[in-house]
Write a structure and sequence with these properties.
By secondary structure, this protein is mostly helical. The chain folds into two domains: about 45 residues, no CATH class; about 80 residues, Hypothetical protein YhaI fold (Orthogonal Bundle). Helices cover about 60% and strands about 10% of the residues. It has seven helices and three strands; from the N terminus they run βαββαααααα. It has a three-stranded antiparallel β-sheet. Helix 3 packs antiparallel against helix 6, helix 4 runs antiparallel to helix 5 and helix 6 packs antiparallel against helix 7.
Length: about 160
């Protein structure tokens, strides 16, 4: 791995990578009023082997994850299993659960006000649902995992009514 240290932005602008792509750029804090930037580059043969090694490791981890998913008892945590199979990120799941929390609070308020028709909540839920998550299967999984039970029970009833 070849390490090049640059002392100013001007040097960076005029620096040629000689056909090698930088893997990452580090900008260090100011030291005596100067900015220090380290650009890490890999020589062709070693860089190619390193990237190939990373790709193999990622492929191996994905394979192991799929095996572990087959070993997991989906009846214990069906929603999490569904999330893994749908390949969602932590941010997507957090946003989804946050939205479900808001929807559950809205459901409770509407129910306390005496409303009996909750179809707009189903429309909102279906509209914000990630495309990789099937509506009915998601509601069933959340019910089985005891997530937002009153809301999911109502949504399940509405889905059965619509079908």
């Amino acid at each position: 791995m070849a390490l090049t240290l640059h002392r100013s932005w001007r040097e960076i602008n005029h620096f040629s990578f000689s056909g090698h792509k930088p893997i990452f750029l580090l900008v260090n804090a100011h030291k005596f009023g100067k900015i220090y930037v380290k650009t890490v580059t890999f020589s062709s043969p070693k860089g190619a082997r390193y990237m190939e090694s990373l790709e193999k490791r990622v492929a191996k981890l994905e394979f192991h994850q799929s095996l572990l998913l087959e070993m997991v008892d989906e009846t214990k945590k069906p929603f999490y299993s569904l999330v893994i199979r749908a390949d969602l990120t932590k941010e997507e799941v957090d946003a989804f659960l946050s939205f479900c929390q808001e929807l559950a609070e809205q459901y409770e308020r509407q129910k306390a006000e005496g409303l009996t028709i909750f179809t707009p909540l189903l429309v909102q839920f279906a509209g914000m649902l990630h495309p990789n998550l099937p509506l009915e299967q998601t509601v069933d999984a959340m019910l089985a995992q005891q997530l937002f039970v009153p809301l999911m029970t109502e949504l399940k009833t509405l889905i059965q009514t619509v079908n």
